[in-house]
Amino acid sequence: MSAKKVVVIGGGTGLSVILNSLKDSDVELTAVVTVSDDGGSSGIIRDYINVVPPGDIRNVMVALSTLPQDQLELFQYRFKSQDDFFSGHALGNLIIAALSEMTNDMFEAIQYLSHLMKVDGNVYPVSNSPLILNAQFEDGTVESGESHIVTFDKQIKTVWVTDPTQKNEQPKAVSEVVDAIHEADMVILGPGSLFTSILPNVVIPNVRQALAETKANITYICNIMTQAGETECLTDYNHLEIINRHLKTRTVDTVLVNNRQISPNVVHQNSPKGYLKPVEHDEISLLNSGVKIISGDFLDIKNKNIYHDGVKVRNAILDLL
Predict the structure, then answer these.
(1) What secondary structure does DSSP assign to 208-252, as a single string?
(2) Does pTM surpass 0.85?
């Protein structure tokens, strides 16, 4: 029997955790990575040479690479603050940017580097162009730029992306992304920042259409904690509702949620980093929405930092498959 095809869509740390746990399973993995990041090292590189921001792509490649750990640590090495010229840049970001410039095609650059890094699976930037994230808040105001949007103490109502290289056209995902979604047995959204890691991918029109047409089970892995500037006071059902609203139809089939209680001390420890409190579980609303609910202890606490337990999430995904 051929391996099941699993497409994971998102960005940030959560995406890498899930991919790293799934890569040794008997599945064919494809990671679709957001390209609207404009902060930190990725944002600086994006501004200087106008390439797709490399940070999330770098982390995904490391998560799926089968290279020895010491080689991966070199790829992930971040220059110290006293190195004025390279300050804050990860070596892998610079390598990705260099290959993009050499090939004049970010998608091809990532495929070439995936071969060099012995990546077990596919890594696809959702677009070959660096996209701009835009948001309208509940009060009607509109702002642009991922790192800028989350600084406002206001609830985001809706987001969309624009392609600065295509002034009069809608942004498009690369055809390989659309094909992967159509051919998938399962499409996983998240975990990751709702408005800045997940939605910037799925609101691209041909991605939205592919998600509506695919026969794959579409599973949303809900965040464990709320996030400042994005999801304060939102329940797990609210997260689902926002995703389906941006997809313009009820698309998500399954929601995976954590039900393990978290110590208030751990929550307090995480609050300064933007994680405010555990996402409240609204089981009745989820059931009424018609989705399948997978709830369990998916919590991994390391040094009082809160993550998804990759092994437990992997087992739940494989059971669902």
Answers:
(1) HHHHHH--SEEEEE--SEEETTTTTT--HHHHHHHHHHHHTS---
(2) yes
